[in-house]
Design brief:
Radius of gyration: 16 Å
Largest sheet: 4 strands, mixed
Shape: globular
CATH class of the largest domain: Alpha Beta
Distance between the termini: 43 Å
Structural class: alpha/beta
CATH architecture of the largest domain: Roll
Number of domains: 2
CATH superfamily of the largest domain: 2,3-Dihydroxybiphenyl 1,2-Dioxygenase, domain 1
Strand content: 25-35%
Order of helices and strands: EHEEEEHEEE
CATH topology of the largest domain: 2,3-Dihydroxybiphenyl 1,2-Dioxygenase, domain 1
Helix content: 10-25%
Length: about 130
């Protein structure tokens, strides 16, 4: 299935008596090593990486501020070759992400663009004044 711009997407059929309305419930990140990348993000947010034996994906639940049920990391056969069409924006400390292995891609006036160990782009904003 594709969106109008040709980007691949997935839709899951649910029983009509169990679905009240459409609701986003997880974000899936394609990666080469879901154990390694999932653990990197789990450590960044201080949550436990979850997995099932024999499965080629891992996931996080209870990520602070994350509006969905799960953040999933799933294996894909092809390497990342171009900029992601979707990225996530976070409040945080750029230096701590860099110390953990993130790569700085660019610095903007209000945010910094980083890449995780597999090259997935994300933006880091300083925490809002009321959260400091």
């Amino acid at each position: 299935m594709e969106d109008p711009e040709g980007n691949e997407l997935c839709a899951f059929v649910r029983r009509p008596d169990r679905v009240l309305a459409y609701k986003a419930y997880e974000v899936v990140v394609d990666c080469a090593d879901p154990q390694r990348l999932g653990q990197w993000w789990a450590d960044a947010f201080g949550v436990e990486l979850k997995s099932e034996e024999g499965k080629d994906w891992t996931w996080l639940e209870g990520v602070p501020g994350f509006p969905m049920q799960a953040w999933v990391f799933g294996t894909v056969p092809e390497p990342k070759t171009v900029k992601n069409r979707v990225h996530w924006d976070l409040y945080g400390d750029v230096a701590s992400f860099e110390a953990r292995g993130a790569t700085r891609l660019s610095t903007m006036p209000r945010w910094t663009v980083l890449a995780d160990p597999e090259g997935n782009e994300f933006c880091v904003f300083p925490p809002p004044a009321d959260a400091r």
